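Summary for the steering committee. The consortium agreed at its last meeting that each partner would contribute one worked example illustrating the joint modelling workflow. Our contribution is presented below. We chose a case with several input lines so that the handling of multiple components could be demonstrated. No manual editing was applied between input and output; the record is shown as generated.
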Amino acid sequence: MSRVNEQRGGRLHGLWALTNRELKKWYKEPLLLLVSVVQPVIWMGLFGKAMNLGAVFASNPGISQFAGQIMKQTFGTSDYFSFMAMGMISFVVLFTTMFSGMSIVWDRRLGFLNKVLSTPVSRGVIIFSKVLSATLRAIFQAAIVLMVALLFGLQLSSNFNPINILGVFAVIFLICIGLSSLFLLMAIRSTKWETPMAVANLVNLPLMFASNAFFPTKMMPEWLQLIAQINPLTYTTDAVRQLLIYNMNATQLLIDFTYLGVFAAVISTVGIGLSLRYLGK
Amino acid sequence: MSDEVIKAEGLTKVFNKSLTAVDHVNFSVKEGEIFGFLGPNGAGKTTTINMLITVLKPTEGTASLLGYDIVKEAHNVRNVIGVVPQEYTADEDLTGYENVILCADLYGIPRDVSRKRAIDLLELVELTAFKDKKVSTYSGGMRRRLELAAGLINRPRVMFLDEPTLGLDVQTRTATWNYIKLLKKEYGMTLFMTTHYLEEADALCDRVAIIDHGKIVAKGSPEELKNNLGGDIITLSIQENADITGLVERVEHVKEVKQQNGAYLIKAENGEVTAPLIIDALRKEGYAVTRLSLAKPTLNEVYLDYTGKSFRDNEESREGFVRQRMTLRRARGR
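What follows is the complete predicted structure of the assembly.
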């Protein structure tokens, strides 16, 4: 019978089908898509423009000439908005991977997971499709943030090279793979949406604020600096800044990439490995 | 190869080392038949199916499907089975057609084949007109049909149906039975289904196993099971106020006589033949029969006889309860 021939497609068959299923739900729902695009815009517009730290100094004409220097010393750029906009990329990546990684709870609850488990799709593909769809979504969101930042007047560094954009996406890819594996692992055993969500929320805020996303770590108390130094979001944000708004420090960038690479490799191996064990029972 | 498509030997599943959901179950399913697992909620039906479709690993015992071991050769098993789960698994945000194609992709069926198949299957379950509508607009019966179509996309040799009509109204249920029969005829496969509707088992299954507390308590065709019960029930009243128990008991084929509310309940084999014999015997002694009715036992009586109770709806796990509620809600189209 032709059955044997037709049901091939390598070990990876079904990967795109499952990934696309997640993505389709999102890009075919105009409202959802709109909200996910508008949300970072609002954040940036309100937060970034309202917290205009530069204005604190500019109000006094006597010191305004030093203001630029102080800003530059503190934030590495004289424009706080540019500084913060890059932090916003980490922020968006963090929340998008969290929501997408947890969609597996619904698959379990609605019986879809059992259905997929009874098909010849490999277990690894089921897990990896989740990580991949979360990553793709986050990359898309980050791209929007970047475009909006440019529209709002992001000040690129003087030696910016368009090729650096590719570097930015490489950074985002690495952090997304790591984070979505982590969130997937949190959710995989759960049959309820609430539990992993509570844990994720507990983890998210510290991850966000104990990083250099909104404020430079060197001005934080020491204990906080310690946390920030192991926080992958710090490296993400720094790498993006190096690539776009700072005068690039190649050594620092290399450190960022190495750290993120190791983070992605370790967390995804552990996360995907454990998820595989917990998938069935 | 024998004609046994599914063979389970001592199949057991223990959850969390304490809850025995399926307890050393043995059964075999023959090629081409519809085999039904009948039992109350929480009896272990779905757990058994989940082991057979390789979603759960048995704690003990084994089963094979077309000769493939469900643990060691799980991949081969997955290729030859189709599954229609208890829940509605179709994605609400996608159209019916997209859902069937998604299923095809999971089996690695090339698009040129799957497109045509999807259209044929949707035609068969009469969803052609709705194939490009989102599943969220479907009714319960339509969703069930979509699941049936999706479960057939890989031309399975064995099809598993878990509570195929859960939450459907009586009319839709009967219609769904017809679709199941039609699909079986069209594709000629072996069907394994679970149900807690007795009429469903009676209407569809060639053979059933009654499962309770994880154990199989009875096996056989619905006819056999009903006959094992001891035959038909004849209810009879006479004009005279007299005890005729001894008299009736002497009639051929009569197995048991009980008096209840002024009438006699007579258990007898082959009721159609026995009833006239009883009337004759009574007339000969001068008694006048005023009323007589004959009832064939249904699976309901069989069921009560073996499990000693009616359905236990409340002993289910919370998760199962939530899932079922969700399924029911969707069946009603919210």
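Chain B touches chain A through 37 residues (CB under 8 Å). Chain B has two domains: 4-225+307-331, 230-296.
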